[in-house]
Design brief:
five-stranded parallel beta sheet; binds fructose -6-phosphate; alpha/beta
Length: about 350
């Protein structure tokens, strides 16, 4: 059941601290300053990494690819439906990583099969034990989020991001004590976001807008894409997410005093994103800043959704939770079919 929540989506948003704890259990040890993912014990990666995924899982993969590059591993990210192993250079040193909650998505399965035929090693990050991807790939890492009923992916996205942080550490052999500390603290910080969020009030204020924009840089660029996708899926409203630097290359033409802009302002990209905020503010747009530094950012924004600082790699995971809540409350105000949005299915088994 929904345990007293109106929708599975809200229940699953609130299950995220537990989902994270399950994902990290026995994999992150503070005492030994170690990250150990047992399933990956026999995985070797001497070449480059290619991620393949769709939808929300693609946004997690974008985040993961960036983390790997940060750790010195060459990594690219592909939409599974656009992946073409015949034309993308693959050697037997290439590791192709599928990110798929269900483990059944046809496009992702197709890409993984292509990669396998081309001689790559395949790994899947999935939530479903015994799924097609889990059976067919050379290696499997479970994200351990637990069953997700709502069609819109929420807790599985957070678990994918955490699993990708573990993977980046495993593949690079870099066990940054700061990352370990921040990973262990993440479930409590996420709980804090859920307890203190003012997203419902923000949603109520902007429920009548025709369009919403989401901007961020670096790790927050993938969060911006995810924020917009969630908004589209469950509210049926127009939403766009993009890397903040792209604003002035086109989308700025759409910005008026009627377009709320959600700006993700965390980490070392904050100063540049504040620059982007000024660009939209000058057009009269209301700016909702999602940030771990309200004192610095507050003066540029009409609203602030605060998140605790969890370090440069993980704070964006918390920022995303604020956006999940905004979308949820906009959709709830509009009386949408939140757990089963029109035209969408939980598992897309046709390509
Ligand atoms: C969005 C959503 C979809 C899925 C996509 C991939 O909320 O749920 O975009 O992320 O269909 O599904 P999986 O991860 O099962 O491969």
């Amino acid at each position: 059941g929904k345990s007293g929540y109106d929708h599975y989506m809200l229940k699953e948003i609130h299950e995220q601290p537990t989902a994270l704890r399950k994902c990290l259990r026995e994999r992150v040890s503070e005492l030994e300053h170690e990250i150990t993912v047992e399933e990956l014990a026999t995985l070797e990666c001497s070449g480059s990494v290619q991620f393949v995924a769709c939808g929300t899982s693609y946004h997690a993969a974008l985040y993961g690819a960036r983390l790997l590059r940060e750790n010195g591993i060459s990594a690219q990210c592909f939409l599974a439906s656009e992946y073409d192993a015949q034309r993308i250079p693959i050697t037997d040193e290439t590791l192709v990583v599928g990110v798929t909650q269900s483990g059944e998505t046809a496009d992702t399965m197709g890409a993984l099969r292509m990669a396998n035929q081309a001689g790559a090693t395949t790994l899947v990050l999935t939530n479903v034990v015994g799924s097609s991807a889990a059976r067919e790939c050379d290696h499997v890492m479970y994200i351990r989020a637990g069953p997700e009923i709502g069609v819109a992916a929420t807790k599985t996205f957070v678990s994918q991001q955490a699993a990708l942080a573990l993977l980046s550490s495993e593949l690079s052999g870099s066990e940054a004590p700061a990352l370990i500390k921040h990973l262990r603290g993440l479930p409590d910080k996420l709980q804090h976001v859920l307890d203190e969020s003012t997203a419902q009030a923000v949603a109520e204020e902007f429920v009548d807008a025709d369009a919403y924009f989401f901007i961020g840089r670096g790790y927050n660029a993938s969060v911006a894409l995810e924020g917009a996708l969630k908004m589209k899926e469950i509210t049926y409203k127009h939403a766009e997410g993009f890397a903040a630097g792209e604003l002035k290359h086109g989308p700025l033409a759409l910005v008026t005093d009627q377009t709320p802009v959600f700006a993700l302002v965390t980490g070392d990209t904050a100063a540049k994103t504040i620059g982007s905020i000024k660009e939209v503010e000058a057009r009269g747009a209301p700016v909702i800043a999602v940030t771990d530094r309200p004192a610095e950012v507050g003066q540029y924004a009409s609203h602030v959704l605060e998140v605790p600082d969890a370090g440069p790699y993980l704070t964006p995971i918390l920022a995303n939770v604020q956006l999940q809540l905004v979308s949820y409350w906009v959709a709830a105000q509009l009386g949408r079919s939140i757990d089963k949005p029109r035209n969408l299915a939980k598992s897309v088994t046709v390509d």
